[in-house]
Amino acid sequence: MKRRTWLAVGSVVLGGSVVTTVAVATTSDTSDEQTRSERMRPVAAYTETFQGGDPGKRSVPRKDTRPFSMLGVSWEDPEAELDGTAQIRTRSAQSGQWTRWQDLDLDIRPPETDEGKDSGVRGASEPLWVGESDGVEARVLAEGGESAELPGGLRLVMIDPGVLGEDIGNGWRKVGDMNGGGNSQEPSRQPTTEPAPEPSQGEPSTEPSASAPATEEPEPSQEPSRQPTTEAPTGEPSPEPSTDPTGEPSTEPTGEPTGEPTGEPSAEPTGEPSPEPSTDPAPTGEPTGEPTPEPSTEPTGEPSTDPGTEPTGEPSTTAPAPSPSETQRPRIVSRAQWGADESLVEDPPSYMSRVDAVFVHHTAGTNSYTCTQSASIIRGILTYHVKTNGWNDVGYNFFVDKCGTIFEGRAGGVDKAVRGAHTYGFNGNSAGVSLLGNYEDGGRPTQAALDAIARISGWKLGLYGADPAGKVTLTAAADTGVWKNGERATLYRISGHRDGYATLCPGANLYSQLPAIRTKAAASS
Q1: Basic and acidic residues bias: where (predicted)?
Q2: Contact criterion met (CB below 8 Å) for 175 and 333
Q3: Which of the residues 43, 244, 378, 383 could staple to 162 if both were Cys, CB 3.0 to 4.6 A apart?
């Protein structure tokens, strides 16, 4: 206060414009520091207990809450399945409007390794990103109605991803210019290889799509009409609405340089040209006309019956050195840059001998997120996987957002064979890449996202001399609903989650693009 008062007096006595400018700048700097401090808050998780006397029906009555942006449902026994439906509705912290009921995905399983057998592991739904909210209502109903029985210890879990230094001014997006041309702007159209269908209308309020929740009030989506004040500093230009790839309004600011005359994000962060992806839209994910190499006889799943392909006993905590392939490494946002809370991770990472396959996932959340929210979403998933599921770290090895930015997932080194928790029964000798969003219920991946998945998958497999367009034989380490424990499964080296486990993941519209992803990954590796 003394310094600010002295400068103000000086400007009056001297009357010089230079002194006045300094006085204003110094006061603004001090004010900015105070504002930044006030607006920063740590990641937080808190719960509500479900109520009700019926064994097959539980609810959380509509109530006011502390701020949160992600939520899910968990239960005590990780081996128990919630055979029924879990639905939530939330109130926007900005508009005060309530969404309609949204279904939570329930097809997540704990890792088949010792990590999934820890005493703190719980069963849980997939987390759902709902945007900044301050009210919630939830209900869970067992299949067969109130006469059926739900798992015990039901909780509603809400995650506040916090506001960290990286979020102020979207600084993490500027680190390394992740797309090689300032393409942090939202894509303005859907650049997929097949036309997007018209969005469905008149969806019943009790069975909405989780990817595009409608509201009871006349608003375009559950997301606020502009970036929440906790996500960008005051004084930034107001965001102009644009159309994102899902047909939902985007809140991405347009003040960032695009670097592209078309407004579409560049797919290659390295600036090197890459071949066009295949336009084969085969709905089964099987490529037509694509050469199929002979399957490897080397079982790379777990447990393995052949020596030398999988470590014996407990997973190693020492990373084996991969083949050098750093020249093609894509730009990756590190855990430090997206704000991972490393205090959540108690145990060191486990390492495998190599990576022989990549499983592609989607996070099954909303598609109406903005790319400046990507780091917040990933922080939320990390917190949910550790605090709610009871895992040691986030399950996926990598994340990709719809702007084509690649994020480091599970800790241990992006160039190491880190064992993840992403594909039940096939976590051994594989990596998991998850695209933010839902691509089963109408959402379609952008070309930037498809290219990024191809880049990271091709590079990761290339570290171990594996052909991204080829096949490999893995050994199932658990009964997955698709494969029996110990069964040898011949799969594409770049496969969808559903190829290994009974799930809709990564969604039909992303799964159908896997042939093109394999082709591009092979060309760039």
Answers
A1: 55-66, 106-120
A2: yes
A3: 43
